[in-house]
Amino acid sequence: MRYSLQSGLILAACIAAPVVDAERVLGAYLYSRHGDRTAKVLGNTQLTDLGYHEVFSSGSFYHDRYIAAGSDEQIEGISEPIVNPNQISASAPDDAVLQNSATGFLQGVYPPALKAASQTLGNGTFIQSPLDGYQIIQLQTTDTSQDSESSAWLQGSSDCSKATVSSNNYYLSDSYMSMLASTKDFYTSLSPMLNGAFGADQMSFKNAYTIFDYLNVGYIHNSTKTFPLRDNLTTELYGQLLQLASNQQYNLAFNESDPVRAIDGAVLAGEILSQLNKTITSDGKTKLGVQFGSYGTFMSFFGLMQLPVASVNFTGICDYASTFVLELVTNATGSGIPSTDDISVRFMFHNGTITGSDEPTVYPLFGQRNDLISWDDFKTQTEKIAILSDDQWCNQCGNTGGKCASSASTSSTSDSTGSSSSGSGGMSRAVAGVIGAMVTLAVILGLEALFFLVGGFRIAKRRKSGPEMSSSAAVAEDK
């Protein structure tokens, strides 16, 4: 073998080149839509066996990516193969479809572990764990209202007054009226396929999503015997139905000039920021967050994070078992959580179930070009659009009842105090207010004394009742 000067220079350059450390994954937050389910319009919506399989498949992918030993993207320090409950948090609204989807997904993330499948008691008794070491992961319930996956889209399900008004305003807009008129004949033509599930007055763009949902579920589950016009739902017609439903639902979920419409996405953004920040501040003790929700929340969140700038597909209704994930990553050497200056965030999304060689696609956030965004920039940008406290939610929604009663009282007191200022004659409004209140009180007491004296009334002592329990207003998932 001849050794040339050129090859020698290349070898020297390779030896001199600095070694780039491999990227480390410090933590992640997963958000997923439920799996396949029965149609909303029929009521009593349930997760199907297909839906169970879909979420389990997606969960298994994230096990292989973040949990499995030997994975290049394994979250640093995460427990494997046995779950450490302190490292993972999981939540879903109090809804059968979403709760069961989350349970199935988590079975994929942490499958049965033989090491946890049995134990020997102190008296020598051998106990075999059920289901070959099935791992139980606590599923927390997020706040919801009475609306469930059985309901059609209702922005009011979030109990946010201003968000409800904002979404309802869409139905008064010129763009909605135009779509309603231009698609009238199209929806009327679907009557033979709808099999009496919708009345004549319901076959319109106003019910674009529920009509799409009904036909989509029918096509997936029914043969031509039970769905005679199944073949009429061509790829072209299906695409048109989905496009119209997406147009309607995105406009109900997000409006750039009226951010409160995306309240569900703002709440989710706050939860994601809190979870990822906890990973950093806890020195990596909290590693993985998992939450389940609806396509509507996906749309709200996508709009707030400016993802339609990266792809117009983010304005469409995502498929069953769709997931997105935000990863905390670093190239800093060593182990553990480095300085925040060395931490970045990566966003990835996959539409539908992840199977085979599928992988989520990376997209830039906030209209940027880079796939990675520094933690400090991510935190700053997210804080601008996120709901980070109950008081903030109450103020943006304009709610004054339930959990917002105390916020409204505090706000009222603050406004009253803040209005005090110096007046003429050197007496401040605050002092004048106190003097005025004392004079008024004296007058009132005098009138009351006269009232009781003349009227013959007497004051009786009444036992004080306990404090009233206020109901809490909830932030819910529209499904």
Automatic annotation (TrEMBL):
Keywords: Membrane, Signal, Transmembrane, Transmembrane helix. It holds the Pfam family His_Phos_2. GO terms for molecular function: phosphatase activity. The keyword Transmembrane applies. Residues 1-22 form the signal peptide. The chain crosses the membrane at residues 430-454. Residues 404-425 are annotated as: Disordered. The keyword Membrane applies. This is Histidine phosphatase superfamily clade-2. It comes from Penicillium cinerascens.
